[in-house]
Each structure stands twice: as C-alpha cells, then as structure tokens.
Amino acid sequence: MFTLYEKTAAQCSRMITQEYSTSFSLGIKTLHKELHAPIYGIYGMVRYADEIVDTFHDFDKKYLLEKFKRDTYEAIEQKISLNPVLHSFQKAVNEYKIPLHLVDAFFKSMEMDLYETAYDDADYQEYIYGSAEVVGLMCLKIFARGNEKLYQNLQAPARALGAAFQKVNFLRDMKSDYQERGRVYFPGIDFENFKKESKRKIEEEIAHDFAEAYKGILLLPNEARGGVLLAYKYYLKLFEKIKQVPVHQIKEARIRIPDFEKLIMLVQTLLQHQVSARLAYFV
C-alpha cells in the first residue's frame, strides 16, 4: 500500500504544477516519462514555499515558512513525510542526490522575501541564486541521472536559465510585486520613476542569460532537452513581448502569453525535438 501513498503524493505535486503554471506543465509533459515525478516534486515544494511568502498575508508567514523548512529537512532525513508535497520532494532529493546546500540557498531567498523590499546588487544576486538558479541545478541533477561530469559541465548554463526566467518574472510582475508586496527586486530601481533606459539595461542582462542558457540546452540528454527547450521558448517569447511594450505598460498590467500560443509552441517544439532525435539516431 505504500506504493499507493507515493503515487497519490506524486499526483499532488503534479496537480500543484498544473494549477499554478501552464508553461511548466507543458514543458514537463515533453520530458521522458521517468523524469515527470521528480520534476513535479521539485516544483511542488518550491511553489508552496513561494506561496507562503507571497500570498499568506493574513497569517504568520515567518512561522509558517520556518515550519515548512523544518518539515522539509525532516522529510529528507527520514525519507518520508505525511505532507505529500514534501514526500515527493524528499524522494527526488534522495533518489537523485540533490545537494542540501541547494535547498539551504532556496530557503534563504524565501526568508529574504519576508523582510526585504529593496535589493542592492549583492542581495539581488543572492536572491536570484537561491530562488531560481538552484532550482535549475536541482532539475539538472535529475536530468543528469548520476552523470556527475555532465552536471558539472552544465551548471553555468542551468544557472543562467534560472536567472533568465526569474528576471523575466520580475519584469512581468513588477506592478504586483510593488503594489501588493512592496517589493522592487532590481537594484537601484524606483518603481514610481522606472525609466526606459533602466528597462533597456535589464533587458540586455536577460538577453545575455538566455544566450548562455541555450548553449547548455543543446547539450542536455535527449529525454530532457525537449521539455527544457519548450520552457526556454515560452520565456523567450514572453521576454520579446515585454521588450516591445513601453515602460508605463509594465507598470500598469501583467504581460502574458495566451494559452493558444503556448499550445502552438508545444506542437512546434515536439515536432522539432522528434526530428532532431531521429537525425541523431542515424548519425
């Protein structure tokens, strides 16, 4: 019956991913079937931790995050949790030997969200590393499947991809982050006086991250490449859309990609990935 518990725990993490992120759900579906459960496990945990600091305004966020953190480490140590989200996460951590220092850095960034509202350069880099880059590294551990050389070689591109995604999120959510949470993540940026030149500099930084990340995507194992490429294309398209809008629109509305465009990208990526895989088979 324990197998049934693990199955339902995994389904919880999958449901969380599907409810919170259409783009990541589509990306995961294009991964090899064996990679689905551990990636859902990673996303479920980080999503719920982020939810605590972002939306639980009527509750004691500090207490809830500390408890969630303690429960996470206990789940990893005991290799079981009655919290299905943490059970799925610990299973991924233990099975794929995800280093605990990545988990440490993630929770450090979540704790920063409890107190920080404006970031200097050092805090900005630390926050992005812990909130996004380490998530990319956790996923890379799963994609590498024990191939330590591959993991070491692709760490920099994986971090760049996480950074690109997070910075695009910062631009996309600039209005809600400031108005609902009082946060401005970009160093030296005053939301009320956000200017075109500041936006351009941020966009140059993001474009560099995307370029570095793409080099690593091409070197991923075939069973992981398609899913990561789809997430990359979605965020790149969102980034290109954000680049086209004026500063005042960033401050007034949340830019998004319609679902039908996401589905088109899914089909295109699947077709491209299948053709590439077949060509590789005959080479």
Summarize the structure.
This protein is an all-alpha fold. It has one domain: Orthogonal Bundle (Farnesyl Diphosphate Synthase). 80% of the residues lie in helices and 0% in strands.
Features:
283 residues; mainly alpha; Farnesyl Diphosphate Synthase
Structural overview:
The termini are far apart. With 283 residues, the chain is mostly helical. It contains 13 helices and no strands. The protein has one domain (2-282): Farnesyl Diphosphate Synthase (Orthogonal Bundle), CATH 1.10.600. It has helices at residues 2-20, 22-29, 33-55, 61-78, 84-96, 100-115, 121-144, 148-172, 174-181, 196-217, 222-244, 247-250, 259-282. Helix 1 (2-20) packs across helix 5, helix 2 packs parallel to helix 13 (259-282) and helix 6 (100-115) packs antiparallel against helix 7. Helix content is 80%, strand content 0%.
Largest sheet: none
CATH architecture: Orthogonal Bundle
Oligomeric state of shown chains: single chain
Radius of gyration: 19 Å
SSE topology string: HHHHHHHHHHHHH
Please indicate the percent range of residues in DSSP E strands (runs of 2 or more). under 5%
CATH H-tier superfamily: Farnesyl Diphosphate Synthase
By DSSP (H or I, 4+ residues per run), the number of helices equals: 13
Calculate the terminal CA-CA distance, rounded to whole Å.
Answer: 46 Å
Protein structure class: mainly alpha
- DSSP summary, beta strand count: 0
Mean pLDDT: 89
Unreliable residue runs? 275-283
Query: Which CATH class applies here?
Result: Mainly Alpha
